[in-house]
Amino acid sequence: MAFEFEPASRPALPILGRETVFPVRRIFCVGRNYAAHAREMGKDPDREPPFFFTKPADAIITPGPVPYPPLTQDLHYEAELVVCLGQGGRNIAQAAALDHVFGYAVGNDLTRRDLQAEAKKMGRPWDMAKGFDSSAVIGPIGSVDKGGHLEQGAITLSVNGTEKQRGDLSQMIWSIPEVISILSTYVELAAGDLIMTGTPAGVGALVPGDQCTISIEGLPDLEMRMTG
């Protein structure tokens, strides 16, 4: 089969301590997975079934300069742990879910909050608020065989040296095994899929020139700078 034009290269993430890279297939995101963040967004944090949205794989940008996106006056940061799957499946049992994890990374789920608010008001999809170019800032992957699983530990975000977000991975409403298991009932997961697992409270705006640092225990810091 011959392509009409050269297809785009597949997005990939570096892996700590390896020369190989991790090919990214899809990006799934869990909405409102920390109780305090659910409250600040005006929602009840009870354990209702989790909901998911997606970003295109080519929304990934690695740490460093990140361009401020168009059509927004309210771009928000969201510090998140990213789960990177090394194998997939459908209807994955919760007890076996962690066996499917290749590793973990630090992520920033950038959100055009004004566009999201308008979409919610109109009952429309969030795609243009969440899935725009360079909206998934993701650092290098720490593999499970080197660092083990991350089920607890501090997650923090600072802007220009001032802490804005602080939580603990253990505070997720839905744990990583639960998220993987439930998501696999909606779609058949596969190696290369990423899951952004939600953000703690304290989300807020970024403007051009801001320096943003996200830290998760057990992983290298994610350092990014918003450009104009």
TrEMBL record:
Residues 27-225 form the Fumarylacetoacetase-like C-terminal domain. The gene is nagK. One of its GO terms (molecular function) is fumarylpyruvate hydrolase activity. The keyword S-adenosyl-L-methionine does not apply. It comes from the Bacteria. This is Fumarylpyruvate hydrolase. Keywords: Hydrolase, Metal-binding, Pyruvate. The keyword Hydrolase applies. InterPro entries: Fumarylacetoacetase-like_C (IPR011234), Fumarylacetoacetase_C_sf (IPR036663). It comes from Pelagimonas phthalicica. The lineage of its organism: Bacteria, Pseudomonadati, Pseudomonadota, Alphaproteobacteria, Rhodobacterales. Pfam families: FAA_hydrolase. Its EC number is 3.7.1.20.
